[in-house]
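Exam revision sheet. Question 4 asks you to relate a sequence to its structure. Input first:
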Amino acid sequence: MSIFATDALKEEHALITGATGGIGSETTKVLAEMGAAVTLTGRRKNKLEELAEEIRKATPGAQVYTHSADLVSEDERGQLVESAANAYGPISLLVNNAGVSGGGPVDQLDQKDMERVMNVNYTLTVLLTQLVYESMKKQKKGAIVNVTSLSGLRGTYGETAYAGSKFAMTAFTHSFALEAIEHGVRVNAVSPGFVDTEMGRSSAQKKADRKGRSLEEVIKDSIPSGRMTSPREVANTIAFLLTDAAENIVGDSVKISGGSVMR
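Answer key, structure tokens:
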């Protein structure tokens, strides 16, 4: 059940990257429930189509377009933005959700892995945003939400590469927000802690293994609320930041951690 009005994002067109992941899929569902036309992108075409069909069944009349793309390719980034605009008009909302984990303790870091993590989590996000921002500037409106992490606000053991890429995303959010608001475009970020997704559970399990404890014990001790954040909770926060209700929230990083940021 949506907590937002079904016309809260009517006449908006949202592009969601990493759409088939836990946070991405929930975000696309929420935005479609709010009346936005949604363009889903990721590398797995079959997964995109499965998600699109699920949205159409749950939200009759939903406008859903899928376009598989590898954001590493400059041509594919351009084709994505162009085809999305052809489908539902200029993109007015952007959720930069695509990302990967990787890395390890400093003495075990591999250059190729470090470059891969930084490229996907930061560089490619900026390059895609540039393309979408062009049309937002012309429209004199738009909203962008970057999915970062608590690891982009504080250091975490064994995550130098990942945290470094997320710190970069946080800095990008803050700096870009100052430029974009001059053109009526708001830029913000969400910074979740452990989220109940495949990536989030894997990260939490690694912490548990390192400490020689069970996953349940680590969650209880690390998160004052006693549980991981659900993907829907992150999606709802992203959705709020995309609405006019958040029109004076600019350059912020909203923490969603069950209180773990205080520990």
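Marking note for examiners. The mean pLDDT is 93.
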